[in-house]
Structure formats: structure tokens, C-alpha cells
């Protein structure tokens, strides 16, 4: 009996969300909105989302995974699934900046995509709801030498570093010198050197090459500290 009840409570959100008022809100919104179940299958996309994602007219998206979409951004399916799970497990917003060929004009541009977890009455995960906004940098050179398809996350994949350490890791990964990092973060050269040593200790490495390898292994190479967005880069929607 309990197994049957559990099965019923986790039924596809196509049914469980059918009468939720937020669907009506999304349906009439000019902002792209979507809903996915807890297996990352698409449940709902409004017209704005279909246009923004450049999903072909008539494509049956319901029940599909990201990798099944005939769209350039489907190549990022593993990263997208990871952020879906992060939103569900952390009970917080998971945020990414994804760059791909978006809109009906297939323009290569970055979009900010926050994902929010949704639950049933028993507190069990049903999936995620998300929206998208075009991300326009006033100064994009601090993040990209050349704009290219990518998925960047604003949520660190590991939780052993302080905000300031994440800032330093971000610049060190781009092979900026300690003096250059010090200038960007308004700290002394000595302070950066000391913090880099602590970062190396936490990572279990002894060199910049080790730091870079650690970032690739943990996913920090796709992380952009929110602190830098607030303080170092001006942006608007």
C-alpha cells in the first residue's frame, strides 16, 4: 500500500501540476518559462521559451530530455542535468549562464537561467521550474576572450572555499599573475600569495597546474563567482 502511495505521489508533473495557477501565469508571460520533472524530462514550455530556445515548430517536447532536442544547446545536457539535481537537492536556486545559439535568429548569446525546486505536499521533489533572461555584459572581456558555446554556473560545485578564495581561483584559472589578481581584487600582492597557498592546501596541490587540473576535475572551471558579477562586471537585462 505504501509503495503504491509513494508511486502515486511521484507521478509525472504533467498531471500533478495541471491545475496549479502558475501555469496560467507562465502561459501569458512574455518571459520564457519552463517546468521539468525530477528526471529532467520536460513537462511544460511557454511560447516565449519555445522561441528563445529555437525549438522547431511541431516538435513534441513533452517527456523529452535535453539531449533529445534538435537544438545546439542539447550538447550541454550533462551540465544541465547536474544543475537540475543541484536545485532539487539544495532546496535553493541553481543559477547558470548558458551561451548557445538562441532565438529564431539562432544568435550566439548568453542567457541567465535560474532554476527553482518544486515539491509535492509531502515535500518530495517533483522537479524544477525555470525562466531565462538574456545576459548582456557591458564589459564581457573579463569573462570571455571569445564568446563560445558554454554553460557557466553561479553556484560553486564544492563548498570548501570562501567567497574571496573563489574569486582568486577564478582569476588564477585564467592564468593571471598574483599581481594582476591583486589589482583586480584591490588586495596586496602578498595577500594574494598567502591566500593562494591556503587554496593549494585545500585542493591538495602545489602549483598552478595542479589548481587548473583540480578545477577541471571538480567543475570549478565552469564557475563564475557571484561576487565578481556584483563588484567587477556591470550587466543589465
From TrEMBL:
Domain of life (superkingdom):
Bacteria
Instruction: Cite the GO molecular-function annotations of the record.
Output: DNA binding
Tell me which UniProt keywords the record has, alphabetically: DNA-binding
Q: Which GO terms describe its biological process?
A: regulation of DNA-templated transcription
- Say if the entry is tagged with keyword DNA-binding: yes
Q: Where is the HTH luxR-type domain?
A: 154-219
Q: What's the protein name?
A: Helix-turn-helix transcriptional regulator
Organism of origin: Candidatus Williamhamiltonella defendens
Q: What is the lineage of its organism?
A: Bacteria, Pseudomonadati, Pseudomonadota, Gammaproteobacteria, Enterobacterales
